[in-house]
Automatic annotation (TrEMBL):
It holds the Pfam family PPR_2. This is Pentacotripeptide-repeat region of PRORP domain-containing protein. InterPro entries: Mito_RNA-Proc/Resp, PPR_rpt, TPR-like_helical_dom_sf. Keywords: Repeat. PPR repeats lie at residues 158-192, 228-262, 263-297, 330-364, 365-399, 400-434, 435-469, 470-504, 505-539, 540-574, 575-609. One of its GO terms (molecular function) is mRNA binding. The keyword Amino-acid biosynthesis does not apply. PROSITE patterns: PPR (PS51375). Belongs to the PPR family. P subfamily. It comes from Eutrema salsugineum (Saltwater cress).
Amino acid sequence: MRQFTCPCRLRHRISILSGAGNSRIAARLSSLPLKSTTEESSQPPISSDILLESVRSSQWHFVEQLSDKITPSVVSTTLLNLVKTPDLALSFVKHIDLRFLDFSTQCLAIAVVSKLSSPKPALQLLNEVVVSRSKSSFSVRDVFDELVLARDKLETKSTILFDFLVRCCCQLNMVEESIECFYLMKEKGFVPKTETCNCILSSLSRLNRTESAWVFYADMYRMDIKSNLYTYNIMINVLCKEGKLKKAKGMLGIMECFGVKPNIVTYNTLVQGYSSRGRVEGARMVINEMKSKGFKPDLQTYNPILSWMCNEGRASEVLREMKELGLVPDSVSYNILIRGCSNRGDLESAFACRDEMVKEGFTPTFYTYNTLIHGLFMENKIEAAEILIKEIRERSIALDAVTYNILINGYCQHGDAKKAFDLHDEMMTDGIQPTQFTYTSLIYVLCRRKKTKEADKLFEKVVSKGMKPDLVMINALMDGHCSTGNMDRAFSLLAEMDKMRIDPDDVTYNCLMRGLCGEGKFDEARELMGEMKRRGIKPDHISYNTLISGYSKKGDTKHAFMVRDEMLSLGFNPTLLTYNALLKGLSKNQDGKLAEELLREMKSEGITPNDSTYCSVIEAMSNLEHNAEKSDT
């Protein structure tokens, strides 16, 4: 509803009461004596006839002036009289403000406006109602039932209202509610439109809920809701996400059997699916097929291939092929190239791509800057990253949440807690809420600096804010306590994970095993490996190396080699760390002969010894020589 200042309201009141506009409403009111504000407020509510007449004559100033005196029943009656002129009903609703109506009248207004040829106004009104109700106690069934009553009042057979409700829930990322609404329609015998079902399928696919997407698709089939091109494109994308590329390509034949011809989006989806799995030759086969069907590949076809080939250092092959087809790289292409170079540590080429991007008329995006900043931090070029941030600020570009998180994580990885927390404070000042990633980085740097008490407080703050910690965050905190020898707290975190229904992983148990080994509790560490297996978590080479290292430090080479043998039997190849740990134990036990044998084995396995390796071997050999000298004496 438009807001008026006091002079403006007074001006409208004078124009109405003086008969301005020569309308019948004005004439009727001009015959009434002027009354004080107190007397006006005691006037009875406006009648539906007067309201309807003022709406039809577009006397919106009058409607707005007396909107607080209009009762829900009068609004409802007016709306019912405007069913044949939904555009006028929409204007009416806008001038009295939907938020100030009761729930029943709101739904009636939406039902009337839904008769417009464009769905946008009804969807917008429905969005307002759903959002306002979701702030208190929201039930999609309540909205559905009220819309059923509104539909009955209009005496219409159309079920478009309920399709709109599903679409509205999807737009608001309320996927469960949209699915519930679908089944409420099914209960009532209403058949949802294919486009409505596509909204749900698209939401499920976007959330990677592929299994739910297939369950829903099966229900569509049972309800005899026909799939259209968009439906098939979504399901092909679902199959690609599941890695079922052969079935995804086979869906093309199913489409054509039902008379639905693939479009360029269909083929591009398949190319994306093959490319994301590194199946570039498969992607090229799809491109050849789309060419044979008369489709010309575009940038959306080649950018996914470019992305994968960039990781392989073969971007030039794709760029040459794109050039032959007359395809000029766009901002997405350049960002892919910049990311590929940054990931390989080739920052010089990454910045050269950025410069070329600008030269070609493309403005670097947040993604461009974030990729470059992340690359600089990964290469320990902190000063260069700070210069780039300064450049962004000088261009008056406000940092986004991703940029802040990259910076905070970068400083945390380099142990600069002060700058990380300063950025956290700046982030809050800019009105950007920290995410799980933000807090995980901060907890990590606190633990790295042995400030586990502060890390615990920050963790408690995260929980108190209603943010559910994730596995990475808890693992970071647990590792901090294990490193400082506070195993009681570490194991209490494991118990908290169970309460929060967060499944531990191999990283969790490796932290605990390392902490126990640090305290010399090797048997308990070995028992933890058994617990891992009972939970269905497979120990990895780090798990075994942790135990081997623990036993070796103690000088218990017998158990160290037993763990090594178990590791080999499960198919894990010893690493440099494995050999160095074993050699450390042998040097401690002055077993130079076995150390020499192990060094030869290590080289035969193609593992290059380092300084630590040779130090351990020399120490073991010197002890052997010393013992030999004593024997000769």
